[in-house]
Design goal:
Number of domains of chain A: 3
CATH architecture of the largest domain in chain A: 2-Layer Sandwich
Strand content of chain A: 15-25%
Largest sheet of chain A: 5 strands, mixed
Shape of chain A: globular
Largest interface: A-B, 48 and 48 residues
Strand order of the largest sheet of chain A: 5-4-3-6-9
Distance between the termini of chain A: 22 Å
Oligomer: homodimer
CATH class of the largest domain in chain A: Alpha Beta
Order of helices and strands of chain A: HHHEEEEEHEEEHEHEEEHHHHHEHHEH
Number of strands of chain A: 14
Number of helices of chain A: 14
Helix content of chain A: 40-55%
CATH superfamily of the largest domain in chain A: ATPase, nucleotide binding domain
DNA sequence: CGTCTTTGTCCTCTCAGTGGAGAAAGTCGG
DNA sequence: CCGACTTTCTCCACTGAGAGGACAAAGACG
């Protein structure tokens, strides 16, 4: 099919598209209830959207006691590509215009191989999804990278864990290859967008999403919008000091949160514990797998290993320490914990909660839920699709 | 004079009023350049504003090579009252509609005496200003209190240092007494508004204002707007842990920033040092005044006293430690240091800068100015006037 | 004194948007 | 099967915001 070229011509049309995206098919009358426009004006705008092909009218809905209504919905042929580049793996997904995932692939990868190699892999994954009949092409793509991004241009800036990407024109390059509009953002921000769109943060306007994966980052949502900071590095909490004079960190300081707790730090500490004979359980896993990951620690803790549990608790304490400060400062309405380490589950969550509720003032914590993300590994790709759809469903 | 009753009827009028407030008198043509309206439409809206009396046309400006323009300005009779309630003193000021201070009084006071006593004092100060001929009445008032505020209602909530104020309807009570609209906010937020309006933060959209007075608080401005958090306690950084297992704090925890550095903490530490014979300079001042304040420490440091300097440096280090975390998280474009302790001046600033620049990542600090506030004790009252004027100069 | 520039006013035209009348297409009770 | 009532959608006349051009007013300047 020919790809989407049209964009909403005005704010009304943009609003209608967003309503159809978030609420599914609707009749003109239902749309009118949500949009504060007269029926006549609404009909005009809907007709224009129908002309552009962005939305279609397919069939009649069941009667609700009167004339049956026409179903207006977003063009079911629209396809968005969501890409979530992590430190050690990539997620690529195809969604329809309602941001429902139609297909999703995850593959291991190493960002440090640089943008060219990674893009090759991403494009081949996208091609595979296309070949499986899910899409004939893409109307837009969102992509998340594990580092700060100059958002308007879609270019990574000074990313610590992916040095080869500094200044690489991700947006432009990918847009060329895919032949569609592309938006780029930090992976944590996309996770926040995902949880806001379809996860635990649907009804909250000001919240934080703490992503604990290979590193640690924080997505900040203010008044429903992602806040990216002056240079795009807002939420970079991995190098906040969690333990004074603590472990040395790659950044040159000591005691950074990331040096004490993250996927990488946890694996390191678990290996150390195994080698020092502090945990038979972990030692056994180390023997069997030739290495340890956060998942091993989670499994060991689930099997009742005290050392593994301690590692998780200690990490949760450090994380909670930092989050407590952020809660005092930012006074969010919700804190979401996500990322690969979420497999550690409720042990981790409990440790974080204890620390935050103890350290922050009651006014800030009184009604503050601290919860695990709801979408798991799909948060990023859904957020990516949401990012590009927000862009395309706004006035040109 | 009769007080202002009218409000702008639409967004255009509101915008015009704000332009006149921030840019002083303007001709219709000059306004047209800033407002993206046709001259005809602009003329209509200006005429309507003239009818309401909110603005006046007084005289002709000098010619700039053609027909002379009419000067359009905000009604010079408009008066706003700005009130800044601190822990130990009150500032009350009268401004015109351009938020220029026409008169300013500062008096010592103790918030803990409760809202009734404090209001009596504030009202008598306002009466004194009125009696001196600066105002015949007030068109609006802004008031800042040293604690969290439920902003929409203008009611303090659970304020630690002013327990008697919890739930007291400040906005309503003051509005009754003064007979004009009133807005209430946290004192730190008002300081941020003040520095944004007339101080160092005029051109920045995302910045932090750290106020170090009797306590410590932080004003957060996102996209030009003050961010207040979910329950109005955003920026409450006094109880973030600055020193693990540090000094006990009134809040029940240990090592809170406020327990280590603030006007009160500094006075306490200086007294201790004087009594232990660690500083002859401070001991002399203690003898002379019967007590020590932050100003004494500043004077001692200026006189070359090493102990006083150490106290300031150590405090700056703790503060910088916390600010470094906030900078990593929030990635502001500017950090402003203000409040009573600013008398400590560049010694304090240097200590804070050192710590922040060392602990935060280069991307966040690379282009980050950390400066002292420009307005000193007038920041709060200017911010208060700005608060109410923003309210009144927005569509009804 | 005529020309040029700037400022402000007036008038007409366009177009977004409203609200009401009514057509189309149902349900439901008798 | 028919009439009364509902709901959905369309059509049309009217309103008001706003644009843009013509023109008047008022000064500068050679």
């Amino acid at each position: 099919m020919r790809r989407m070229t049209a964009r909403p011509a005005n704010a009304h049309q943009a609003r209608l598209l967003q309503l159809l995206r978030d609420g599914g098919p609707n009749s003109r009358a239902q749309l009118g209830d949500q949009v504060d426009l007269s029926r006549s004006k609404l009909a005009v705008e809907v007709d224009r959207l129908l002309e552009t092909g962005l939305v279609v009218a397919d069939g009649l809905a069941a009667s609700r006691g009167g004339r049956r209504s026409h179903n207006i919905r977003l063009n079911p042929g629209l396809r968005f590509l969501g890409v979530d580049i992590g430190a050690t793996s990539v997620d690529v997904a195809v969604t329809n215009a309602e941001l429902e995932i139609l297909g999703h692939i995850n593959q291991p990868m190493d960002v440090r191989e640089g943008p060219v190699a990674v893009f090759e892999q991403v494009l081949s994954m996208a091609a595979k999804l296309r070949a499986s009949g899910l899409a004939e092409g893409f109307d837009g793509a969102g992509i998340g990278v594990p580092g700060p991004v100059r958002f308007p241009e879609g270019v990574p800036v000074a990313p610590p864990i992916m040095p080869g990407w500094d200044g690489f024109p991700v947006r432009e390059a990918l847009s060329q290859e895919l032949g569609c509009p592309v938006m780029v953002d930090n992976d944590v921000n996309l996770m926040a967008l995902g949880e806001q769109h379809a996860g635990v943060a649907r009804t909250v306007h000001d919240f934080l999403v703490v992503k604990i994966g290979t590193g640690i980052g924080c997505g900040i949502v203010v008044g429903g919008d992602v806040y990216r900071g002056t240079t795009g590095s807002a939420g970079d909490i991995g190098h906040i000091q969690a333990v004074p004079d603590g472990r040395p960190c790659a950044c040159g300081n000591r005691g950074c949160l990331e040096a004490h707790f993250s996927g990488a730090a946890l694996a390191r500490d678990a290996t150390e514990a195994a080698q020092q004979g502090r945990s038979a359980e972990l030692a056994g896993r180390l023997e069997a797998n030739g290495g340890l990951s956060a998942a091993d620690v989670a499994a060991a803790a689930a099997a009742g290993d005290a050392t593994a549990l301690d590692l998780i608790r200690e990490g949760g304490r450090s994380t909670g320490q930092v989050i407590a400060g952020l809660v005092s400062f930012f006074n969010p309405g919700l804190v979401v914990i996500g990322g690969g380490v979420t497999g550690l589950g409720h042990n981790l969550l409990a440790a974080i909660r204890t620390q935050v509720y103890r350290q922050s003032l009651p006014l800030a914590t009184g009604n503050l839920p601290i919860v695990l993300g709801e979408l798991g590994p799909t948060a990023g790709v859904i957020g990516a699709a949401r990012l590009i759809s927000d862009h395309l469903f706004s006035p040109a």
